[in-house]
Structure formats: structure tokens, C-alpha cells
Amino acid sequence: MNPLSSAAPAVSTSLLDDFSLEMTGKDIPKLEEAAGLIPPGTRINVTFLGNEDLQMRLGAARAVKRLGFHPVPHISARRLGSQADFEQFLDGLRSDATGSDVFTVGGDPSRPEGPYEDSLALIESGLLSEYGVRHIGISGYPEGHPAIASDVLWSALREKNAAITAQGLEGSVITQFGFDVAPVLAWIERVRSEGITLPIRIGVPGPAGVRRLMSYATRFGVGTSATIAKKYGLSITNLMGTAGPDRFLRSLADGYDPGQHGEVKIHFYTFGGLKATSAWIAQFRKEAHA
User: Fold this and answer.
1) Strands (DSSP E) along 38-107, which ranges?
2) What is the residue-level pLDDT of the chain in tens, covering all 290 positions?
3) Most CB atoms within 10 A, among 63, 130, 224, 285?
């Protein structure tokens, strides 16, 4: 499938400039392999997973910086066993000069392992700014969350926005990925109507196998009806195939209005791997600017 069309330049010059990527603490070799395909200074988020430890997380952030990119370490509230654990991580990031920009998330555990129930608790602790954090990323859910009611999600977004603003910090929102542009744009319009002006990064899957994409979609409550799948380019009758985000990005570019939607960029979830995603983006941008 050729990802390019006459609409490709519009996607590249507006939404695909200053894109961000995501990696795990175990992905340092993969990042090194993909580094030549990624623009210098690109924001790379480093996840905070249960099967990783402090040194892996710190090491990954250091690798991002060493390779010329901008590290954005994740901090999972419910995975922190204590305030001491939180401060140890923040202190390590500060010592490595890799913690000015972080992404806060509640995390997968249904019950907190320590004193932090959610990402708002991390922000309101005051420890982030104390340890040199200047920019805080928070989550957005255009299609809702399978375990959290809609009104709770909206209340949390308002409260986190207010807490970031009250501390004089910068902030942004990264959304869960989806396959349908319509609910994404509608959600952004609702965000702006709430008076929230934070920049938004729309979560997009990098090119990956259909089976893997469908599996993640089921896990995160993302719509995958036959109509949506066809619109995105997924073949639900050929799970052995692959799919890229080209149709989604073109549709997003067609509907995106800076005056109405504010600052919007793209965040790639690298389900198919850092190199595959980075190569796809590099080729897309190269041909779009040709």
C-alpha cells in the first residue's frame, strides 16, 4: 500500500512535524538501530512497566539523551510503592538531566502499590517541580476508558489541567490511540470547550500486524467495528496482514482546523517496532516534501 497521496504534504507539514515516539526500558538496542531514521531532538517517551526496574528506566532515558533525542520518562502512579520510590526515580532523572519533561499516568494495577492513587496525586504532591520537572504530560481518552466512567475522565482532565497551571508548569495531553478520526476531533472540540488549551498529541499506532493492533484495541476499549476497520485499512478477515496509519492521518489532516482544535501533533505507539515506525515516518516525510 502506498501511504502517500495528494493530501500527504498537508499531513507532513502540519501534524507530522515534531512528532513523538514511545519505547520501553528494554528497547535501547532497538532505539540505537532506528536512531539514524529519527530527527534529532525528537521527543521519545519511555514507559514505566511492571517488568522493568529503576535502573532500566533511568538507563533508557539516558540512552534517549545520548542519541540526541529528548527523553520523556513515564511515571506510573499506582506502580510506585512509596514516596521514597517516587523521589528516588525523580532524583535519578535530575542527576542525569533527563527529567525536565515527564508523562504521568495512573498505571495498570487496579490498586495502588503505594500512596499514589492516580496521576493527579503525583502532580499535586509538588515533588515533580521540586525535582526540576518543567513539563507534565497527561492522558486523554477520545473513546473513553473501559474501566473509568466518562464523567470521571473529564473531571480528572480538568483537575490535572488546573493543577499543572497552578504550579506554573507547562503541560500537554497524549491520547490513547484509535482507528476512527471522528471521535478524536469531537473529543478535541470538547476539550477546548472546557477551556483546556494544552497542546494535544494524538496517539497513532505505527505500522504493525493487524492481529496485534486488534489485540491492543480490545485491551484499551478502542472501537474496531467492521466499518471503522475498513476505514482505517484493517482487514478483519486477514489477521496476518499489516496496516499503517496513512488513511487515519490523511483523514485527520482533512478535518483538523487549528483555529478550532488548537495545537495538535502526533504521538506514535510503536507496536510494530521503533525501526519500522521510524522508517515509515521518514519515507512518508521524504516523499511528501519531494
Assistant:
1) 43-46, 70-76, 101-105
2) 333 443 444 554 467 889 999 999 999 999 999 999 999 999 999 999 999 999 999 999 999 999 999 999 999 999 999 999 999 999 999 999 999 999 999 988 889 999 999 999 999 999 999 999 999 999 999 988 888 899 999 999 999 999 999 999 999 999 998 888 899 999 999 999 999 999 999 999 888 766 677 666 666 656 555 555 665 566 555 545 565 688 888 889 889 999 999 999 999 999 869 999 999 898 877 766 65
3) 63
Contacts (Cβ under 8 Å, ≥6 apart) of 31: 23, 44, 63, 64, 67, 274
**Whether 16 contacts 266, CB under 8 Å:** yes
Residue 265 DSSP SS3: strand
pTM tops 0.85: yes
Cα–Cα dist 262/260, whole Å: 6
Place of cell 520501553: 24
